[in-house]
Design a protein that fits this description.
single chain, alpha+beta, about 40% helix
Length: about 475
């Protein structure tokens, strides 16, 4: 068009800190990034580590149907080889996760000030064939449904956040005699025993702390925050925590006393009794005149700056026959009220506690990104080992996105004039979807010819036919 400035698109890219040359090299960046971790996906017997690169690139570039078979098709890896790499190959998922954690903790962004966030995430399943699958509470659906549940840890700062560890939750019935054959079939280790979700949470927090990942505190929702044992373990380990609790949680405003009253026969009762002058539910403190409320600005969000009202007081809580003093932190935002127990030091500023508690948003963001952007909820496999491998490679893909964004933010500053132009206080950061879109353009998925597409369809039909033949043979086996 006459009068159009051909340099305008380039100028806008520079304004927004988007380096066109680097975007064009995103495919090479992913290759170099993966090569740093390649040794951890290389089994001792046969080098199939290239399948790991293909799998991660598939998670990042494909928009839907990211099953092992489809990723193999899109990245020119045979379905059989991809299935073996993910479900049976003996490379260590934990070895890869530890290597990623080593990389993260050395990055300047995560050396100080990061928060560790604990949460669970459930994925609906069609049946109970997958490891850990069964009818259990699915928070995403808000009801009991056939699901597979994982417990996850995210590491977050205001500018970056990523999954760093996780464990598959196995319901208690999976450890009964009736599930022995199924445990063996899906490869549940014999050393694995039943653990509740809070116990799994403690396990991965311990693992992360032992690996010397730096974090200021642990943040968790009420499934974990109301667990007295978990909070006590965190306190004994010297870990600051912020755990949501239900509104009806009983707290004490004075130190409770434990007494053993005499029975009617004059003997000491075996059942202790808690005696306290001021016992109440957490929600009863909401309108206490003694509470001082402060409005605190937390972080930028899509509607401007997120702020909420906070108040706090010292309370006593009971665990068995032991009592401990904790902070009760109350957050009020409109009609939504959250109650939090914390072992933060007595002299910790309220602003610090409010800021740390409010990090739970980031694991919710990570859970959603891993599902919608990295295909976590499209994962289809039965083996326990496949779940571990999927976790490790998803964490790797997530760290690639986070590291790329941090690198570009450090080296390519945005034009400050954009703030005045759009009349905002903060510019939005690149989303996971943004980086994936750029990667797809720089590293496009192959376009199949008619013959190649037909060949894949025939391969699919052959596999379905073989599966049908196998099922028919099983039906013909005489019952004993």
């Amino acid at each position: 068009m006459v009068g159009m400035d051909t340099n305008e698109p380039i100028t806008r890219l520079v304004q927004w800190g988007l380096p066109l040359d680097e975007i064009n090299q995103l495919g090479q960046r992913l290759r170099h990034f993966y090569d740093r971790f390649r040794p951890y996906t290389r089994p001792k017997t046969q080098d199939s580590s290239e399948y790991g690169f293909c799998y991660v690139s598939g998670l990042l570039r494909m928009e839907a149907r990211r099953s092992m078979a489809n990723i193999g098709r899109k990245t020119n890896v045979s379905i059989q080889n991809m299935h073996h790499f993910m479900s049976n190959s003996p490379w260590s998922a934990w070895g890869l996760i530890e290597a990623i954690q080593d990389d993260i903790k050395q990055h300047p962004e995560f050396r100080t000030g990061a928060m560790l966030i604990l949460d669970e995430s459930a994925d609906q399943k069609a049946g109970d064939h997958s490891a850990g699958a069964g009818r259990q509470h699915n928070g995403r659906l808000g009801k009991v449904e056939m699901s597979q549940v994982g417990v996850f840890l995210s590491l977050a700062t205001p500018r970056a956040h990523t999954w760093v560890d996780g464990e598959l939750y196995l319901p208690e019935r999976w450890f009964g005699d009736g599930y022995a054959a199924r445990r063996q079939q899906v490869g549940v280790p014999e050393t694995r025993t039943f653990q509740t979700k809070p116990e799994l949470g403690w396990r991965i927090i311990q693992r992360t702390q032992a690996h010397q990942v730096a974090f200021e505190a642990v943040v968790m929702d009420d499934l974990y925050g109301r667990n007295d044992v978990l909070r006590q373990r965190l306190d004994q380990a010297g870990i600051e925590y912020y755990g949501d609790i239900p509104a009806n949680t009983v707290v004490y405003l004075d130190k409770p006393q434990i007494i053993y009253p005499k029975t009617k026969h004059g003997k000491r009762s075996k059942r202790p009794k808690v005696v306290a002058r001021q016992r109440c539910e957490a929600r009863q403190l909401l309108h206490q005149p003694a509470l001082d409320w402060f409005t605190i600005t937390l972080r930028p969000n899509e509607t401007g700056m997120l702020s909420a009202q906070f108040a706090r007081c010292r309370v006593w809580t009971m665990h068995a026959t032991q009592c401990r003093q904790e902070w009760l932190l109350i957050r009020r935002q409109g009609r939504q009220v959250t109650y939090v127990l914390s072992n933060a030091a007595v002299d910790t500023p309220l602003e610090t506690m409010a800021w740390r508690k409010s990090h739970r948003y980031f694991i919710e963001r990570d859970n959603q990104d891993c599902k919608s952007e990295l295909g976590w909820d499209e994962f289809q496999a039965t083996k326990y080992l496949a779940w571990q491998h999927q976790l490790a490679l998803t964490i790797l893909a997530s760290w690639f996105i986070a590291e790329t964004r941090l690198d570009w933010m450090a080296r390519y500053q945005r034009d400050p004039a954009l703030l005045e132009q759009y009349q905002v206080e903060v510019l939005p950061m690149l989303s996971v979807a943004n980086v994936r879109e750029l990667l797809r353009a720089a590293m496009p998925l192959p376009h199949l010819s008619t013959q190649e597409a037909a060949t894949l369809v025939v391969e699919h039909l052959v596999n379905r036919t073989r599966s049908r033949r196998s099922r028919l043979r099983q039906k013909r086996v005489p019952q004993t």
